[in-house]
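A reminder from the course coordinator: this example appears on the midterm review sheet, so study it carefully.

Given structure:
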């Protein structure tokens, strides 16, 4: 009865394992199929909107300097331009422009006899009104032709990180932009709203601002969930003579996988499931006869040994498992294990003891190698390791840290006048002060009279105050000192905060902090001489 329960329990476990394996296999297969299809679809979407952006950018760049003048005029006069909300082509604006141009400049041709900068304000306004309608229609036609929901041209304002939708693929009226409590104006119902302006924080629009600052197309896109659904936006710069004028945004809907892809995924899963289940049934039958029965027999012998600790059972196992298959080899291995168990346990205990001794020794050696023997803080070797670790983290993480450098003044004077013992006391006193003031930062002694500290994010935020407290405290120590050598104690300190845009790596942060320290040392020397 007991053997039957063991057999049933083992079979149940194998069955559960295979069922779990089948479920996991089906899930993985389904997910791989689903996401591979979606990946292909998303890549096609990205290529599609990139092509639209490049097409529109080429249209604008082909206009040459004229597009730059158009943009300048728009930014200065967009609130003076009137464009009907429901205009369908540029014929009205073009007719108005040509009529006014012919009246003021009869027989002349724009671009040959007269330039746009020389036009009167009225003609210039009519010309750029026609030009703006022309570009709005171009962007709308591109949107319709390429079947995408939204296209627009942005003018970037670096100082405020705002963007102006100069050419907006979505038509709105001023009444659509009213704030709470403002009344709608009947005259604005059929007027196109121009100069739409928004704040785009670089943290939320990293790719947009990177495209602007570099003037180059970026890999990747901005993801939105907005009125147009779940969309991806790709940004294309408009460059003219090495200058980036603005950014073209093109968006496209990314719909969920269609029903055909989902059905195909389900069919693949059903086929895989049928094959795996059939194989599982056959495998379980073979498993019972060729593995479970011999294993159960071996289990009995091992249980007897566990109860009696009789080494004679090893001989019985040898006789019962005299074949050449893997199960017989396992039985013989158990017999050998029984014979050698005590010897192995003794060796294991000895090895464990030796390993513990070795690990303790290695830890002590590592601690000695990285600790300054005089002050007890970490030494130059430990500092170099920490710099390497920071450099690796800096490449993948958004770190905020700083480095401070402290140089003990008058150490040679103290050593020569009062002896090296007092010099050592001065070094230890300075180390205690640094550790006390910069309690959240790691302190290292990197030279005879020089310390470095890697400032934590907490200390970075209060760096100026901490340095002021440090300078004040060391002056108080010197002022209140009873011994002459203590009165000579002073130190110069400099620091630098890591900024990836201005200070590129950890070494540069240290060099800047070191230079600031030397600048302070010169100021202190000058003050003493005065």
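Designed residues:
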């Amino acid at each position: 009865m007991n053997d039957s329960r063991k057999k049933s329990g083992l079979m149940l476990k194998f069955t559960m394992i295979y069922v779990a394996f089948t479920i996991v296999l089906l899930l993985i297969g389904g997910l791989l199929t689903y996401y591979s299809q979606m990946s292909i679809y998303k890549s096609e979407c990205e290529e599609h909107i990139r092509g639209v952006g490049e097409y529109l950018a080429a249209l604008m760049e082909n206009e040459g300097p004229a597009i730059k003048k158009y943009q300048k005029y728009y930014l200065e006069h967009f609130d003076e331009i009137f464009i009907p909300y429901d205009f369908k082509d540029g014929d009205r604006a073009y007719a108005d422009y040509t009529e006014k141009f012919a009246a003021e400049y009869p027989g002349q041709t724009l671009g040959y006899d007269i330039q746009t900068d020389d036009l009167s304000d009225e003609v210039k306004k009519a010309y750029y009104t026609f030009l703006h309608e022309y570009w709005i229609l171009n962007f709308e036609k591109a949107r319709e032709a390429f079947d995408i929901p939204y296209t627009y041209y942005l003018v970037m304002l670096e100082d405020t990180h705002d963007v102006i939708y100069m050419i907006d693929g979505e038509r709105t009226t001023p009444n659509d932009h009213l704030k709470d409590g403002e009344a709608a104006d009947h005259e604005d119902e059929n007027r196109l709203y121009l100069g739409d302006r928004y704040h785009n924080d670089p943290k939320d629009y990293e790719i947009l601002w990177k495209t602007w600052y570099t003037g180059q197309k970026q890999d990747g896109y901005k993801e939105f969930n907005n009125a147009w659904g779940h969309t991806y936006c790709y940004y294309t710069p408009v460059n003219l003579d090495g200058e980036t004028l603005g950014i073209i945004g093109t968006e496209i809907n990314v719909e969920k996988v269609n029903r055909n892809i989902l059905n195909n995924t389900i069919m693949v899963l059903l086929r895989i499931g049928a094959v795996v289940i059939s194989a599982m049934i056959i495998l379980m039958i073979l498993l019972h006869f060729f593995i479970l029965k011999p294993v159960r027999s071996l289990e009995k012998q091992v249980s007897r040994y566990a109860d009696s600790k009789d080494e004679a059972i090893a001989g019985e196992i040898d006789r019962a498992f005299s074949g050449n298959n893997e199960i017989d080899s396992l039985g013989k291995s158990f017999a050998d294990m029984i014979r050698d168990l005590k010897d192995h346990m003794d060796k294991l205990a000895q090895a464990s003891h030796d390993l513990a001794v070795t690990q303790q020794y290695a830890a002590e050696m590592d601690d000695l190698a990285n600790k300054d023997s005089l002050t007890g803080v970490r030494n130059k070797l430990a500092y170099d390791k920490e710099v390497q670790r920071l450099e690796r983290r800096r490449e993948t993480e958004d770190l905020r840290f700083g480095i401070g450098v402290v140089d003990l003044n008058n150490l040679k004077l103290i050593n020569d006048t009062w002896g090296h013992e007092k010099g050592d006391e001065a070094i230890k006193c300075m180390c205690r002060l640094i550790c006390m003031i910069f309690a959240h930062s790691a302190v290292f002694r990197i030279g005879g009279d020089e310390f470095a500290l890697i400032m934590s994010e907490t200390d970075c935020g209060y760096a100026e105050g901490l340095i002021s407290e440090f300078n004040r405290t060391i002056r108080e120590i010197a002022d209140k000192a009873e011994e002459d050598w203590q009165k000579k104690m002073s130190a110069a300190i400099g620091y630098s905060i890591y900024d990836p845009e201005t200070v590129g790596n950890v070494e540069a942060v240290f060099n800047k902090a070191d230079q600031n320290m030397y600048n302070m040392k010169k100021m202190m020397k000058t003050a003493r001489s005065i």
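DSSP finds 15 helices and eleven strands in the chain. The CA atoms of residues 83 and 192 lie 5 Å apart.
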